[in-house]
Amino acid sequence: MTSERWRQWTAPLLIEEAPVATSLWRADRRLVEPLITWPIEVIERMRAGYQCINCLEPQEQAWPESCSLCGFPMRTRQAEFFAREYAGEVMLNAHNWAGELDGLEERRRKEEERAHQDGQQRR
Questions:
Q1: Dihedrals φ, ψ of 89, to 5°?
Q2: Which residues contact 33 (CB under 8 A, 6 or more apart)?
């Protein structure tokens, strides 16, 4: 059985809890809206109407009248929903590799000094 390419699931990059200030409160509890960071290819499928923004179901054709799984009115409401909810691009795991390498070199030098001092103390 072959799986159609358009049906492939892509997992989110990051799921975080929304800030308390933007949460919906009920009398007995806080309803948490997750903040989901998607890979750019998933965002583009949603923007182009190939993935339902409501239930995340991939669609074979762009902009169907409604989602084949949940019935969300993709053709009439998805673009508006996307414009309202899309928060822009974020950099994940930005790391200062040059600083990390400098730190490794400094740790190596300290280890050598410590080993040298230990060797002199044993004499």
A1: -85, 145
A2: 18, 22, 23, 24
pLDDT tens figures, 9-34: 788 888 888 776 666 777 787 777 78
The 3-state secondary structure of 80-120 reads HHHHHHCCCCCCCCCCCHHHHHHHHHHHHHHHHHHHHHHHH
Q: Is the Cβ–Cβ distance between 69 and 55 less than 8 Å?
A: yes
* Residue at 102: amino acid letter: D
* Residue 56 near residue 70 (C-beta atoms within 8 A): no
pLDDT tens digits, one per residue of 78-118: 999 998 888 676 665 666 667 777 777 888 888 888 888 87
Residue 39 contacts residue 56 (beta carbons within 8 Å): no
Residue 23's pLDDT is 65
How many angstroms separate the CA atoms of 59 and 14, rounded?
A: 23
Please tell me the number of Cα atoms within 13 Å of 41 on its side-chain side.
Answer: 9
Residue type, 19: P
